[in-house]
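1st attempt posting a full record on here, be nice pls
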Amino acid sequence: MAAALEESRATFSLATLYEVVHTVTARLASAPAADAFHASGRDETDCIDMAAVRGRR
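the predicted structure (as tokens):
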């Protein structure tokens, strides 16, 4: 059992989980600004998709 636990520590990566948490945290942090922008009635038809600017992960 100890060998299996040690092997899982060496081979298992939390990188994907950290990326998801980072993305969700960034979206939550920007939500008030996005809500204020939408509530202002500004025209957003000429906006740039931020996913395209940052690149898909």
